[in-house]
Write a structure and sequence with these properties.
mainly beta; 5-stranded mixed sheet; 3-stranded mixed sheet; globular
Length: about 110
């Protein structure tokens, strides 16, 4: 409901105030799997005056290699889950200006 589709590959981080969070989705035989939906929502922005941030739940889908890449605001607080049955997991994105990409926290779900 209200989710927007994101792209799993070819994500370009358009802003120096963003970093790309990545993860690989696996099936029940521990093989990378495509088509897994990862839902992400910004709960608290980076605390920069003059910014108004969208907090719509966005859905990203794993590619043929099971990879999901998600552009995120540095300093932001998010929640994410795998599929519809997964539990929401909260995480923070580093404010470190040198961080361009990082592994997202582990997610469980269908």
């Amino acid at each position: 409901t209200g989710a927007e589709e994101g792209e799993a590959s070819g994500v370009t981080v358009p802003d120096v105030n963003q970093a790309t969070g990545t993860l690989t989705c696996y099936d029940d035989d521990n093989n990378p799997v495509s088509g897994v939906e990862i839902n992400v929502q910004l709960l608290q922005g980076p605390g920069v005056d003059g910014g108004a941030y969208d907090n719509t739940v966005k859905t990203f889908t794993s590619d043929a290699n099971g990879l999901v890449s998600i552009p995120l605001w540095k300093g932001g607080h998010y929640r994410a889950k795998r599929g519809d049955s997964g539990f929401w997991i909260h995480f923070d994105v580093s404010e470190d200006s040198d961080v361009e990409s990082f592994d997202l926290t582990e997610l469980l779900g269908d």
